Amino acid sequence: MSRAGRPDAALIRALEGAGYHPLWDRYQRITPVAPRAKDAPMHWRWAGFEPFAERAAREVPIEDVERRAIIMVNPAFGGETVTTGNLIAAFTVLEPGDRAVPHRHSAAAIRFSTRAEGAFTIVNGRRCEMREGDLVLTPPMCWHGHINESGHRTVWFDAANMPLICGMDANFFEPGNRRDEQFWEVDQGEERLWASAGIAAANAQGAPAQSPKYRYTGEEARRMLDALPPGADGARTLRYVNPATGGPVMPTLDCYAKRLDRDTATRPCRVTHNQVCLVVSGEGSSSIGEKTFEWSRHDVFTVPHWTWATHRARSAQADLFLVTDRAVFEALDLLRIARMRCKPPARWRYSRASTWRRTASVRCARCGRCAPRTGRRCANRCALRSREAACVTSAKRSRW
What is the DSSP letter of 184? Predict the structure, then answer.
């Protein structure tokens, strides 16, 4: 029945005119059954970014701008500067001798060194190197600036939660002084107190919410990934943590590194938080929702919230760096993770041209194993009941 033909149509119009909304008229709209991401997954190739980096270095004087950074934008957000829900991701370009003016803001941000050897980030009076694979934090309202002391162009990956903070109308920003030479004349400072895992000064003080450690070296992360066994999803995953609490590095940003082995697809998973993924090394592919991306070194792609995703390496190994807003959902008790019960290879065939495709196999109702269909019996000679497993039916609904 149209609204005009409803017996309460006049009442609804009167309520709306007086600044009210009737709950019975829009209950399903304000209480959806499950999250539905506004944006589709997106993929930005490093090869496509490089020409823009070259032009920006030539055409944008660093003295005229706050940052020479190029942000990846998803058109689903209607022209807003958003990469995926709550997050932006970018690459920053510095020419030899460039200094990015100090400033500070309420948003939490990170820098991940891709091609930044010779560059340094100054964070609250600490000089942080940016070697390959290094993660550097710039917590909320910490003064920070960047300098390239090498003889070549440097580029690194940035991520921040400006969309989240601005969506709450909670952002503050303070510009620094371009002529303040003392800002740059610093050393590692207190960063040395947190340089060794498991060791800290007895009287070391750090803000409980923010990590007192600003630089996490790529060398240590690679060594940890080498030592880690595969997890439940088939990948080796580490979390960057606040050494004082064991929690996320910042209350609103959470960072991870993931290593994939050749031809081992991760178990399909979807989560309530958003993820931006940087390919640190190697080549591979990811099936996210209804899209499949073939990626290589320094490509960037997104995994919007509550979207099924699985990843696979084509090279011997592939390393991904993930920046997420998971910490926000944990703090609000909104974190939810769903995994398919079985790894896809038991029942699904992978195709680079599309996604996982259904093959003729089912879960046996008696023995519980997944096996090819052979008449009415499984490979273990037990009675078959097709679609017995919830993972099979849910996967089919999600077009995996």
Answer: T
What are the pLDDT digits (tens) for 63-116?
A: 999 999 999 999 999 999 999 999 999 999 999 999 999 999 999 999 999 999
* pTM score, whole prediction: 0.84
Helix (H, G, I), strand (E, B) or coil at 177: coil
Q: Where are the alpha helices (DSSP H) in 240-336?
A: 326-331
Specify whether 328 is located in the same domain as 355: no
Burial of 381 (0-12, 13-18, 19+ CB in 10 A): exposed
Provide the residue type at 28 as one letter: Q
Give the C-alpha separation, 103 to 125, whole Å: 12
Q: What is the DSSP letter of 250?
A: B
Residue 36 located in a structural domain = no
Give yes or no for a contact between 117 and 131, defined as CB atoms under 8 angstroms apart.
yes
Number of domains in the chain: 3
> What is the rounded distance in angstroms from the CA atom of residue 333 to the CA atom of residue 211?
21
Answer whether residue 367 shows pLDDT above 70: no
* DSSP letter, residue 183: G
Run of H or E residues at 382: none
Residue 305 lies in a domain: yes
Q: DSSP 3-state assignment of 12?
A: helix
